């Protein structure tokens, strides 16, 4: 563990050289990373194969772990796209002269050292390093052991790009994957400024419990879509189907349909065909279950209490029928993970009340919850979707990898 | 404990009514609080006397705890001043139409429920409640047991003002002072959105260690002033004396003078008279000790390693003499608590390098570190000075009692 702490200290020390490097230098590093990904693609794929060889041929993680020539091109492309985003550091947020003549300004500066704990996807290594370097932050990366060969060569290339531009390789540190070293990271308050866990709920819980370093939680998304009494039914069906099936394993996908009783029968009648074609398993409440049963819906279950507030991450969802708008709001307030929530309605007053009253990172009127995403929002690549309220809420992208600094310039002012 | 959790839940539920109340209504509550402080001053002073009666007549805490007619007037005045600050919620941070027609905006909204743990000063009760109500946040207050009678009547008046304006009294909850209930607060992730500890280093450590709720650390200030080779000596003496003696018990007061060797003798020669008059105990390093000894400085000690990075909170400081600018930066980087740091110099290049390289909430050139304060910065009353980097850095005032919310308005957009 002492070696790891020593390396954290080196990363802390080196971080200021990166913070003070020019935007051009930092972008030159990114450009070199993209070039090296192309040039060394054969080496990367060879190392990636070593990781794949450790997994059974039908292991579900293989696809997330596997790199191909095409995926490497996409990865290099995403590094280039980060170069084109505005530098979030060095922005002047306010500037004024106090009555005593002190010139006071507030500017954005890099956070310092960002720790990211993530699981097997090796593209995270490049994405996080690119975002951190672009914004002048040093990074401590703790990837999954399944991807260790791939991550090692990727960080080797990042180091090469740093050296080519005269910046210490200490600014990007790939930690060993020993489980107990995660604790060293979570308690290194002197060296690490923020920790971002990317991964399972269990990981996020561990970080929340153990970390002494401030964290950004990128938590689970338990997302509702409320189909109101005045919803246009075909629009509601399109939105619900899209929110559920376009990518069910991601955090902004639909988990529960909240349905006004007056529209329930008509809505479900139209939902049956598309949901059947995607084989969506439906955990239906007491009211919707008999309706779906009478429509001969083939993938039907009785909802239990645990099926509300449940993140399905699969072709599955629950349905809750409510008597009125207030019951819908109350259900969402109780079970929401405050990620993304939507209402489908033609009633503007009701919609505006929903947008105001529902406490979530993103709220939608007549649109799919699937839009909550850094790329969709025009923010570029994201480190995760924050479901907490401090510092960043929703997509945690480049623009949030900064803190503030107050600068006072005087001529001898005292208080 | 179950009662406390039930009350947290009531506070959570009530918080949205406050968040959705108009700015006029929230300000009417504040106005009524100010009026009630005046009208009920005799009752408040009587309850305050009960708390004072629990303390020995020479107890150092008496002064912090004691209210007077004049202090109550100041308190009512500070509530009125919060009314005049702009509402931090409801600001549109960005607004755009995505290529698919989705109208996407990012607005500020209240954090929700803010938990504040503080020690004996009863003015905090009113200040925090006023800031929270103004910004649409519910508040859970956990004050010190020494001030329980005073806090109880103050919260009673706040409740009266809420009732007069049709808002549930649940939005301001004064917790019982049992120590174990602090744990209930720190782990109530479902009900509390942020916790702010105000008080001793021990309290802040406990919160950092135990809290599952995101926190804003308002930590200790270990503040340096670097007197550079090219400093104007009389200015440097004025700044150092002000930073040390104007209010030594607060976090932005000076703890260590870092002194360039070439100017050490001349600077100390001028420092001796004012420091002697304030009886400032000086913990001097190997170089400055003989100099001060030869100047017959009467309050002299030999600095130990522990005297660097030490927050004195008294008429005392340490002195470190350095060979060059880099050694000064390195000393500050090692021992700073990243609160407030200053350089005194006539060299603009060196000053700008210092302002950029030193990692602290506030950095000053030719000014006293004592300026780091919400009121001085024009932000109004503050809940504390944040020494962490997420969300708020430096004075944590009204403007930071908000989070963001993304709002997407569509016409059936799917992804």
From TrEMBL, chains A, B:
Keywords: Amino-acid biosynthesis, Cytoplasm, NADP, Oxidoreductase, Proline biosynthesis. The keyword Amino-acid biosynthesis applies. HAMAP family: ProA. PANTHER family: DELTA-1-PYRROLINE-5-CARBOXYLATE SYNTHASE, GLUTAMATE SEMIALDEHYDE DEHYDROGENASE. Pathway: Amino-acid biosynthesis; L-proline biosynthesis; L-glutamate 5-semialdehyde from L-glutamate: step 2/2. The keyword Metal-binding does not apply. Residues 11-283 form the Aldehyde dehydrogenase domain. This is Gamma-glutamyl phosphate reductase. Its main location: cytoplasm. It is found in: Cytoplasm. GO terms for molecular function: glutamate-5-semialdehyde dehydrogenase activity. Its EC number is 1.2.1.41. Belongs to the gamma-glutamyl phosphate reductase family. It catalyses: L-glutamate 5-semialdehyde + phosphate + NADP(+) = L-glutamyl 5-phosphate + NADPH + H(+). Catalyzes the NADPH-dependent reduction of L-glutamate 5-phosphate into L-glutamate 5-semialdehyde and phosphate. The product spontaneously undergoes cyclization to form 1-pyrroline-5-carboxylate. Gene3D superfamilies: Aldehyde Dehydrogenase, Chain A, domain 1, Aldehyde Dehydrogenase, Chain A, domain 2. It comes from the Bacteria. Pfam families: Aldedh.
């Amino acid at each position: 563990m002492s070696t790891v702490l020593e390396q954290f200290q080196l990363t802390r020390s080196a971080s200021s050289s990166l913070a003070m490097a020019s935007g051009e230098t930092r972008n030159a590093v990114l450009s070199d990373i993209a070039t090296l990904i192309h040039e060394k693609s054969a080496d990367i794929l060879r190392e990636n194969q070593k990781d794949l060889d450790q997994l059974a041929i039908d292991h579900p993680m293989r696809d997330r772990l596997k790199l191909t020539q095409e995926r490497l091109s996409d990865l290099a492309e995403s590094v280039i796209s980060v170069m084109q985003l505005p530098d979030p550091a060095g922005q002047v947020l306010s500037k004024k002269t106090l009555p005593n003549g002190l010139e006071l300004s507030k500017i954005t500066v890099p956070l310092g050292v960002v720790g990211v704990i993530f699981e097997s996807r090796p593209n995270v290594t490049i994405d996080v390093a690119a975002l951190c370097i672009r914004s002048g932050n040093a990074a401590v990366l703790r990837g999954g052991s399944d991807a260790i060969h791939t991550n090692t060569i990727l960080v080797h290339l990042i180091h090469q790009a740093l050296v080519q531009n005269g910046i210490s390789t200490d600014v990007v540190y790939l930690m060993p994957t020993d489980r107990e070293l995660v604790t060293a990271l979570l308690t290194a308050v002197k060296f690490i400024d923020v920790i971002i866990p990317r991964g399972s709920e269990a990981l996020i819980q561990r970080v929340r419990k153990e970390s002494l370093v401030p964290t950004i939680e990128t938590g689970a998304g338990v997302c509702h879509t409320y189909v109101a009494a005045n919803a246009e039914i075909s629009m509601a069906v399109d939105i619900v189907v899209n929110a559920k099936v376009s990518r069910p394993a991601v955090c902004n996908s639909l988990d529960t349909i909240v349905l006004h009783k007056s529209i329930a029968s008509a809505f479900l009648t139209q939902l049956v065909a598309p949901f059947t074609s995607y084989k969506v398993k439906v955990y239906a409440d007491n009211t919707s279950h008999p309706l779906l049963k009478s429509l001969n819906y083939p993938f039907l279950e009785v909802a239990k209490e645990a099926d509300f507030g449940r993140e399905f991450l699969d072709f599955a969802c629950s349905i809750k029928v409510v008597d009125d708008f207030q019951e819908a709001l109350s259900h969402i307030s109780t079970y929401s993970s405050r990620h993304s929530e939507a209402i489908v309605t033609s009633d503007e007053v009701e919609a505006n009340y929903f947008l105001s009253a529902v406490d979530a990172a993103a709220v939608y009127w007549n649109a799919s919850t699937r839009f909550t995403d850094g790329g969709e929002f025009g923010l570029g690549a994201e480190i995760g979707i924050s479901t907490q309220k401090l510092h960043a809420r929703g997509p945690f992208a480049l623009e949030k990898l900064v803190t503030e600094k107050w600068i006072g310039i005087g001529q001898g002012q005292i208080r």
